[in-house]
């Protein structure tokens, strides 16, 4: 049988994998390979936490392939040169992959496709990661959407349940071509291994993704509409890293969630599907507005008076030493687990971009390096939304009050106490804002900052003042 390279990227699964299926349907023996080329993703080369996840996920994919009779070949270097070398050494006649939508990758892949086709190869790419490709949903005028609600209305009208495709029980080995390098040679794991605690919370890989889906359907889905904003509860799906790395297809998730609909879970099902819609919207925006990953979507904010913060000030925010408990809890959860609850992401982001008036890129870059689910489209949309600079953004004058947010969504301070344990001896009401009783805080929580890094009232006033100045300059 002729050989086809199946180039795995952010589609680290066997079920519902269009590139793998195309190779098999075309009568080819698949030669699975992965190429680590972070320099080709500049200026958003993968961050440290996501690299650690990728190491685990690649190991899981290789194990799944070996159970079926083949294995994953790993390479490190320029993608086009490696593909050409493997084609030459193996005699492959085709190359298949699933598309990625980051601007640098889209441009790279276009060049690779042209070069390989010029060599006479069959080269095809497929949608393996989205319900709707970014160009498939358009306004009535034929342009991109900039507001979520009409985007999701138009996308939902196109919704078609994709047929599911199960992983093949066996795969023939392409017994030719270069062996590649060991997984450790890719250098994905950090030194020292600060990521080790992550894996008590996460199981990367296709099996881990399916297990996480089952846990969600059996548990948090039923109360998702109400509990997804509660960081003190297990109320979210925690599927985001599995989705980002393509360990499970979004259409399989959607089908499973929809099949779990009942009178008790209907609100949760609808709320979760809408969150999946936000992911689609993020990729839609990044494709049509690729500059938004680096620049304000709303160019008016190029004139905004962002604060020029000292590195030590930013470091206190990054490490959860701002003196604002809910903010510090979120940032410490991030460092300990590689993940942060979405409601807390908004609170943490608002404090950085509004109270501290740091440019949203400061937060985007930190999340990019520390989140296991770091996704360029979602990260860009989230930070520009909370900063008020993006498409369909929160109005700039919407400044989250972290104390109000904490008392509403963590009413017993359980989340705060878990991640900021030095506040555990304080009365519960004081854990939200310990600076309001400095004598008690100094006695019972002496190791916690006595005052917020930026006072909430004055920080809010300064941010709104800068916003008024911006509006007046138009």
UniProtKB/TrEMBL annotation:
Domain Photolyase/cryptochrome alpha/beta: 2-131
One Pfam family it belongs to: FAD_binding_7
GO molecular function: deoxyribodipyrimidine photo-lyase activity; DNA binding; FAD binding
Protein name per UniProt: Deoxyribodipyrimidine photolyase
Cofactor annotation remark: Binds 1 FAD per subunit.
PROSITE patterns: PHR_CRY_ALPHA_BETA
Family: Belongs to the DNA photolyase family.
Keywords annotated in UniProt: Chromophore, FAD, Flavoprotein, Lyase
Gene3D superfamilies listed in its UniProt record: 1.25.40.80, DNA Cyclobutane Dipyrimidine Photolyase, subunit A, domain 3 (1.10.579.10), HUPs (3.40.50.620)
Site (Electron transfer via tryptophanyl radical) location in chain: 306, 360, 383
Coiled coil: none
Biological processes annotated in GO: response to light stimulus
InterPro entries: Crypto/Photolyase_FAD-like_sf (IPR036134), Crypto/Photolyase_N_sf (IPR036155), Cryptochr/Photolyase_FAD-bd (IPR005101), Cryptochrome/DNA_photolyase_1 (IPR002081), DNA_photolyase_N (IPR006050), Rossmann-like_a/b/a_fold (IPR014729)
Binding site residues for FAD: 224, 236-240, 272, 373-375
Cofactor(s) this protein requires: (6R)-5,10-methylene-5,6,7,8-tetrahydrofolate; FAD
């Amino acid at each position: 049988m002729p050989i086809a390279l199946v180039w795995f990227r952010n589609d680290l699964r066997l079920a519902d994998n269009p590139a793998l299926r195309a190779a098999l349907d075309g009568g080819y023996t698949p030669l699975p390979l992965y190429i680590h080329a972070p320099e080709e993703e500049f200026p958003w080369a993968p961050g440290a936490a996501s690299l650690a996840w990728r190491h685990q996920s690649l190991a899981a994919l290789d194990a799944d392939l070996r159970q079926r009779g083949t294995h994953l070949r790993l390479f490190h270097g320029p993608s086009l040169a490696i593909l050409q070398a493997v084609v030459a050494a193996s005699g492959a006649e085709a190359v298949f992959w699933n598309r990625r939508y980051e601007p640098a990758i889209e441009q790279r892949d276009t060049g690779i496709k042209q070069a390989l086709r010029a060599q006479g190869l069959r080269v095809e790419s497929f949608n393996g990661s989205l319900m709707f490709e970014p160009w498939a949903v358009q306004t009535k005028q034929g342009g991109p959407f900039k507001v979520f609600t009409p985007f999701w209305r138009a996308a939902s009208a196109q919704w078609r349940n994709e047929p599911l495709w199960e992983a093949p029980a066996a795969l023939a080995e392409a017994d030719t071509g270069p062996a590649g390098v060991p997984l450790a040679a890719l250098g994905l794991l950090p030194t020292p291994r600060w990521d080790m605690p992550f894996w008590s919370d996460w199981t990367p890989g296709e099996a881990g993704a399916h297990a996480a889906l089952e846990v969600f359907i059996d548990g948090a889905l039923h109360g998702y509409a109400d509990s997804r904003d509660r960081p003190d509860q297990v109320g979210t799906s925690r599927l985001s890293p599995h989705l980002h790395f393509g360990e499970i297809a979004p259409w399989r998730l959607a089908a499973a969630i929809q099949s779990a609909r009942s009178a008790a879970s209907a609100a949760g099902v609808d709320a979760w599907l809408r969150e999946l819609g936000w992911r689609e919207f993020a990729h839609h925006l990044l494709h049509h507005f690729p500059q938004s990953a680096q620049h304000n979507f709303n160019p008016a904010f190029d004139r905004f008076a962002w604060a020029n913060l000292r590195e030590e000030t930013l470091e206190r925010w990054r490490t959860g030493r701002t003196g604002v408990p809910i903010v510090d809890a979120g940032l410490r959860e991030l460092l300990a687990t590689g993940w942060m609850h979405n409601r807390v992401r908004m609170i943490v982001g608002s404090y950085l971009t509004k109270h501290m008036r740091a440019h949203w890129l400061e937060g985007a870059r930190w999340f990019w390096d520390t989140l296991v689910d770091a996704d360029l489209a979602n990260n860009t949309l989230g930070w520009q939304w909370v900063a008020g600079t993006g498409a369909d953004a929160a109005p700039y004058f919407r400044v989250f009050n972290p104390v109000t947010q904490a008392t509403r969504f963590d009413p017993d301070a359980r989340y705060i106490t878990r991640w900021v344990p030095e506040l555990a001896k304080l009365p519960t009401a004081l854990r939200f804002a310990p600076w309001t009783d400095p004598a008690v805080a100094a006695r019972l929580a002496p190791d916690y900052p006595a005052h917020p890094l930026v006072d909430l009232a004055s920080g809010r006033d300064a941010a709104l003042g800068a916003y008024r100045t911006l509006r007046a300059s138009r």
